[in-house]
Amino acid sequence: MGLVGYGLAGSVFHAPLIAATEGLVLDTVVTSSPERQQQARAEFPDVRVAATPDELWPRAGELDLIVVASPNKTHVPIATAALDAGLPVVVDKPVAGTAAEARGLAALAEERGLLLSVFQNRRWDNDFLTLRKLLAEGELGDVWRFESRFERWRPKPKGGWRESGDPAEIGGLLYDLGSHVVDQALVLFGPAAAVYAESDVRRPGAEADDDTFIALTHTSGVRSHLYVSATAAQLGPRFRVLGSRAGYVKYGLDPQEAALREGLRPGPEWGQEPESLWGRVGAGESPLTGGGSPEPTLPGDYPAYYAAIAKALREGGPNPVTALEAAEALDVLEAARRSAREGVEVTL
């Protein structure tokens, strides 16, 4: 496998998960940074390094897959070049800046007969897996409202392309954390029929949106309220799901990103959290005062994504996240951006 980009996405998420997946070998890391080249060699002594993606294409016959974990604005051109070179591709989210570009990539991959998958790792978050189990078992009845928060307290901007105000960079929280919460909502409750959003730049010196709210009306009738913020001085519940029979409230983020950042690697007890962080299921009580019943949180399982990629390549198994699914999420993100700019609800 060739991995393009060795910043946060490449070094913290992709490289460790690839290395932990049976049957996958991290062959080449592409980064122009001498410091990151040195880091890659230190972490994976057998890896080759390249300064640019163009160094990979003459070696296409030696590789089985390209992973694109470079800045957002490079996703489409690098994925296109990889597909043109005859290589399957995994692209970090967001796969593109527009739904049209995502569908164009999907069409190219289909034309070439190649796998094109999008790294939506938070479909394997512990709370998301637990909620899917509750829904499958009918524990909540008919869901009426889904609240999802991905909030942080970062009062000072970090800078860099993720917080750039240049539209070409595809920065800001709407396309960053928003890609996750929208994808999760669509997986759980189906297509959106209407989108309303509020998006603000709150912090002094910030250039891109850092406090955004998205309201979806799904064709299923469920309403999703999605919050992404770097300015939340008090964090709300990660999930609050209200149904006709019961509700589910869960605080705290999945532990896998923090573990990967600390240098831990998948193994026994990976993705598990203590009982004190379990969510609660009930009706008419407050979870903050012990109301409802504790719901054991299923272990998070980011390694399942690359295991599915390996199975898709070796055995023709299903693509874990298709580019067309990602395009549907981008339809929502584009509608949210228009809604926030114009102050209107956008019908899809």
Description:
With 348 residues, the chain is an alpha/beta fold. Helices cover 31% and strands 20% of the residues. It has nine helices and 15 strands. It has helices at 8-19, 34-43, 75-84, 99-112, 126-136, 177-189, 256-261, 303-315, 323-342; strands at residues 2-4, 28-30, 48-50, 66-68, 89-92, 116-119, 143-151, 192-200, 211-218, 223-229, 239-243, 247-250, 279-282, 293-295, 346-347. The strands form two sheets. A nine-stranded mixed sheet has the order 14-13-12-11-7-10-9-8-15. Helix 3 (75-84) packs parallel to helix 4 (99-112), helix 4 (99-112) runs antiparallel to helix 9 (323-342) and helix 6 (177-189) crosses helix 9. It starts with a strand and ends with a strand.
Keywords:
348 residues; alpha/beta; nine-stranded mixed beta sheet; six-stranded parallel beta sheet
What is the secondary structure topology, with strand pairs?
Blueprint lengths: L1 E3 L3 H12 L8 E3 L3 H10 L4 E3 L15 E3 L6 H10 L4 E4 L6 H14 L3 E4 L6 H11 L6 E9 L25 H13 L2 E9 L10 E8 L4 E7 L9 E5 L3 E4 L5 H6 L17 E4 L10 E3 L7 H13 L7 H20 L3 E2 L1
Parallel strand pairs: 1-2, 1-4, 2-3, 4-5, 5-6, 7-10
Antiparallel strand pairs: 7-11, 8-9, 8-15, 9-10, 11-12, 12-13, 13-14
Helix pairs in contact: 3-4, 4-9, 6-9
